[in-house]
Write a structure and sequence with these properties.
The protein has 277 residues and is of the alpha/beta class. It has a domain of 184 residues: Rossmann fold, CATH 3.40.50. 31% of the residues lie in helices and 18% in strands. It is built from eight helices and ten strands. α2 crosses α3.
């Protein structure tokens, strides 16, 4: 099979190096390259995405609900340690059908949904413009879908949110058959390492804590006490793709609970419906 020896990195623009090829969607032979500057691994230009996205949500993703439950706990603990409360504005970027937004509002945090591809089923009435600035943003299982990596990063970080919590499994160099490449569904086309996440943080004026599955970006100038910084590191670094750390589980039990927005949201939506009638 012929392949190009290099192509430009879609994050930093450096010349990449050919890494390997694999079959995607069980029929397309696709080449992957690694950037020696920022350590991004990227597929070749993803011309097959029209086939991969017959639906916005990957049908092979049987762990979606379990992941949302874990991410809701992790997000609540992280937000609490950052001082995010009921009056703070929060958003889930690339939040799919709005499951996490509904869970976070049920926990008392003022979350909104930003997703231009999936239909909002569970957080209707609580949409937001991704260009707005938020105090706290979550972005789970989204980075690996970026085709225009630099452009999407610019759109995410340009508003200067105080903190951004991301999930994407980080690579430690190429491993043959790595499950996160996802060749069966063909939607994963960009893969990051700790080095890549530090590059992103430096480019946009953030500090980051990068674990194997989660990365927390905190904007330069946002003050977090030494004690809470230490706890945040444990929360992020020790959580895995398939389970939260014991710190998340323990802190979930002892941190102050907030009044759920479940009933008040229903009343707000009913009032809006009556006003529009």
């Amino acid at each position: 099979m012929e392949h190009s020896s290099s192509e430009r990195c879609r994050l930093c623009g450096s010349e990449t190096r050919f890494l390997f090829c694999q079959r995607v969607l069980h029929k397309h032979d696709v080449c992957y390259h690694r950037c020696p500057a920022c350590d991004l691994i990227q597929s070749e230009n993803p011309w097959w995405l029209g086939e991969a996205y017959t639906t916005a949500i990957n049908s092979f993703d049987t762990g979606a609900i379990a992941r949302n439950l874990r991410c809701a706990d992790l997000s609540f603990v992280t937000a609490s340690l950052l001082g995010i409360g009921p009056s703070s504005r929060c958003a889930d970027v690339g939040g799919g059908h709005g499951v996490l937004v509904r869970m976070m509002r049920d926990r008392g945090l003022n979350f909104h949904l930003c997703d231009k591809y999936a239909q909002n089923l569970y957080a209707r009435g609580f949409e937001a413009d991704p260009d707005e600035r938020f105090d706290f943003v979550t972005c789970f299982e989204v980075f690996e879908h970026f085709a225009d990596v630099a452009g999407e990063m610019e759109r995410l970080f340009a508003p200067r949110h105080d903190a951004v919590l991301v999930s994407t499994v980080l690579h430690r160099g190429h491993r043959e058959g790595w499950w996160y490449y996802g060749p069966s569904h063909g939607q994963h086309i960009a893969f990051y390492s700790r080095q890549t996440m530090r590059f992103v943080a430096d480019r946009f004026g953030y500090r980051c804590v990068a674990g194997g599955a989660y990365t927390l970006f905190v904007r330069d100038g946002v003050v977090v006490s030494a004690a809470k910084r230490s706890m945040l590191r444990k929360v992020v670094l020790r959580s895995r793709a398939d389970r939260n750390s014991k710190w998340v589980r323990s802190l979930s039990l002892v941190l102050p609970k907030l009044a759920p927005l479940t009933s008040s949201d229903s009343e707000t939506l009913l009032a809006q419906r009556r006003a529009a009638a």
